[in-house]
Specification:
With about 220 residues, the chain is α+β, with helices and mostly antiparallel strands. It is about 35% helix and about 10% strand. It has eight helices and five strands. The strands form two sheets. The chain has a three-stranded antiparallel beta sheet. Strands 4-5 form a two-stranded antiparallel ribbon.
């Protein structure tokens, strides 16, 4: 047996007995939020010049082409006891129950001109914040993806979404303290996925939150 054949046989044997890890053993494993945060650039906030909601494409587009817009996709994901509007092929959510991540409250959602506002879809990293921390450099398609990416979207209590506005972790956190670690980890995951940066006060706030939960992992997209 040649030296090359011996080397191949040794590597194969090592894989079989577990001495070497399988190439896919760690695939899709979420990292620690503190570690991922350290990979994000820290810069000042860029100007808001040029920002409009239209820079992120049509609001609630059907980006995955499943026949339903993004808002209804997220309602379907986050609500329970769902009833669909007749004739929409189980697409348009007419009513359901939300256990709000941000407050812990249970909210009965009913679709309507006024009642729909009780449950809103929050961009975990607000689009204005994203624009000022690097999204202005993304392509139109990338910004559209960011605005409709489920990893950046939660169905939440409408008044808290309004309260948050375009705040980052330094200016707004969910009132439910037990959710703050997961919330910050979600923001870190979004910023890492779309090559956005954090501003110094934002990072400081994230570090302070994650110090209380050092084992917190970022969600897998």
């Amino acid at each position: 047996m040649s030296r090359w054949e011996i080397r191949i046989a040794t590597v194969v044997s090592a894989l079989l007995v577990g001495i070497l890890p399988s190439p896919t053993a760690t695939a899709e494993q979420p990292g620690l939020a503190t570690a991922v945060l350290e990979t994000l650039p820290v810069k000042g906030r860029a100007p808001k010049t040029g920002y409009t909601r239209d820079q992120f494409g049509q609001a609630w587009a059907d980006v995955d082409r499943n026949g339903c817009d993004t808002r209804n996709d997220i309602l379907k994901r986050d609500l329970t006891a769902i009833i669909y509007k007749a004739g929409t092929r189980n697409c348009v959510v007419a009513s359901g129950t939300l256990v709000d991540r941000y407050s812990g409250e249970t909210i009965n959602f009913i679709r309507g001109n006024m009642t729909s506002m009780e449950v809103q879809i929050d961009h975990v990293v607000a689009l204005s914040n994203a624009w000022q921390t690097g999204a202005f450099r993304l392509s139109a398609d990338q910004r559209k993806a960011l605005a409709n990416d489920p990893i950046n979207l939660f169905a939440v209590k409408g008044s808290l979404n309004q309260q948050k506005s375009d705040g980052d972790a330094a200016t707004w956190l969910p009132p439910l303290k037990s959710f703050r670690c997961a919330y910050v980890a979600q923001q870190i995951a979004v910023k890492a996925k779309y090559s956005l940066w954090v501003v110094p006060p934002e990072k400081a706030a994230m570090v302070a939150i994650l110090a209380k939960c050092p084992g917190q992992k970022v969600p897998v997209s």
